[in-house]
Amino acid sequence: MGTATPEKFRLFRRSSWGEWKQVADILRQETVGGMLLLIGAVVALVWANSPWSGAYESMRELTIGPHALHLDLSISEWAADGLLAIFFFVVGLELKREFVAGDLRDPRRAAVPVVAALGGVVMPAAIYTVINLGDPSALRGWAIPTATDIAFAVAVLAVIGRFLPSALRMFLLTLAVVDDLVAILIIAVFYTDELSVMPLLLALVPLGLFTLLVQRRVRSWWVLIPLGVVAWALVHASGVHATVAGVLLGFAVPALRRRGERVGLAEHFEHRWRPVSSGVAVPIFALLAAGVAFGGLDGLGRALADPVALGIVAGLFLGKAIGIFGATYLMGKFTKAELDGDIAWVDVFGLAVLGGIGFTVSLLVGDLSFGAGTERDEHVKLAVLTGSVISALVATVILRLRNRVYRQVHEKETRDADADGIPDVYEEDYDPDADPGRPTGGDTGNGSGPPVGEAADEPSGQETETRRGT
C-alpha cells in the first residue's frame, strides 16, 4: 500500500464554527462602532470648518485633572491617552484569546495574518521614508501610515461586502489586531522621548496585583478597575505612552477556561469592554482628533502638497496594498500553500487595499510625531482622511466586482438543511487534523461537549492557564 500524500495547507481555509461565531459577534459590534466613528469624524470636520470652530478648539484644549499627579491634561489628551487605553485593552484581550484559545493557536494559520500585518507595516513606512528623505524633521512621522483602523474598515465592509467569505473577514480582523499590537510597540519604543524609570517600576505593582487577581478569577470591577487606572497613571507618568498599559492589562487576563466556566475570562472581559471601546472610546477620540480646518480648496491643495502628507497618502493607499498582498502572496509561494477554493487572489488584493483605511492609531501617531495643533499635525489629519477615503473607494470597486461570487459563497456558508443551528458546510468539511480548533468525537458545539473553539476542562480541576502561564 502506498503512503497517502498529505494535503497541502490552504490559505484562507474556513475556520471552525465556534471561532466564526465569536468573530461574527465581534464584527457586528465593530460595524456599529465604525458607523459611530464615522459620525464622530464627520461632526468634527463640519464643526472645525463652521463659524463655531472656536468653540471646538476651546473644547479640545480645556484642561482638567490633578497637576500633582501629572494628569492635568486637555480633553483631547484625555481621549488619546485615556480612552484609547480602553481600545488597546480590548486589543490585548483579543490577541490573547486568538493565539491561546482560538484557531490561531495553530502556527500555520497564525503565520498568514501575522506576516501580512508585518508587510502592511514595513511597506508604508518605507514609502513614507523615501518620499521624506530630504527633510529629517519629517522622518519622525514614518509610522503614521502603518496602522489599519479595524472599526473604520469593518464599517466600510458592512456596506460594500456583506457577503464576503468568512475566511476573508477573519483575515481582516486578525490582521488589524496584529497591526494594532505592532503600532503600540512602535509607540512605546520610538515615541518615548523621556523615560522616568521609577514610575515605570512602580507600575509593575498594580499590574502584578491585577494579574494575580484575574488568574484567581476575580471579576469584581471595584477591585480591578482601580488597579488598572493606577497602572495606567504610572505608565503615563513614566513617559511611555499610557495606551501601552492597556495592552499589558489585556495580556494579563487568562484566555483558557477553568473547570465549570462557560467561557474564558479574556472572552468574558472582551464582551464587556468591546462595546465601551467601539461605541464610546473610539468615536469620542474621533470627534476630538479629526477636526481640521480645510481652508478651502487652495488650503487643502497646499496641505496635501506637503511631502509629509504625500508620504501618508501613498503609504496608506499604495504601501498597505503592496505590503499586505505581497507578503501574503510570498507566504503562499514559499510554503507551497494553495488558496481555498472559494477565494481568488483578486479578493486578497481588494482586502489589502481596504487595509489602507487608517484612522484612530494613525491620528494618534501623528499627534506624537509633530505635536497636536501644529501645522503639520493638521496636514497629517487631512492626509490620513484622504488616504483612507481613496483606499475605501478603490477597495469598493474591486470587491464589488466579485459580489456575485461572494453571494454564492455566502449561501453555501449559511445553508442549514438539517436545521440544527450549524451551517452544513461546517459539518461537512470537518477534519480534526486540519482544524484543531474544533473538538473531536462528532461534537459540533450543540451542547454535547465543550463549546467549539474553547479548551476542554482539565480532569484534575487545575487551571490550564496556571501551568502554562496563560
Question: Outline, from the CA principal axes?
Answer: globular
Extended strand count: 4
Query: What structural category arises from helix and sheet content?
Result: mainly alpha
What count of structural domains? 1
Q: CATH homologous superfamily, by name?
A: Na+/H+ antiporter like domain
The overall pLDDT average reads: 81
CATH class: Mainly Alpha
Largest sheet descriptor: 2 strands, parallel
Q: What is the number of helices?
A: 18
CATH topology: Na+/H+ antiporter like fold
Can you put this structure into words, describing what you see?
The protein has helices at residues 17-48, 53-61, 75-100, 107-131, 150-160, 166-190, 197-215, 221-238, 243-252, 265-289, 296-305, 307-335, 345-354, 360-370, 375-400, 403-414, 424-428, 464-468; strands at residues 10-11, 63-64, 73-74, 338-339. Helix 4 runs antiparallel to helix 12 (307-335). It has a two-stranded parallel sheet. The longest helix is centred in the N-terminal third of the chain and has 32 residues, at 17-48. Mean pLDDT is 81; it is low at 1-6 and 429-470. It is mainly α. The two termini are 44 Å apart. The protein has one domain (10-191, 241-412): Na+/H+ antiporter like domain (Na+/H+ antiporter like fold, Up-down Bundle). It contains 18 helices and four strands.
Show the helix and strand layout.
Layout: E1 10-11, H1 17-48, H2 53-61, E2 63-64, E3 73-74, H3 75-100, H4 107-131, H5 150-160, H6 166-190, H7 197-215, H8 221-238, H9 243-252, H10 265-289, H11 296-305, H12 307-335, E4 338-339, H13 345-354, H14 360-370, H15 375-400, H16 403-414, H17 424-428, H18 464-468
Parallel strand pairs: 1-4
Antiparallel strand pairs: 2-3
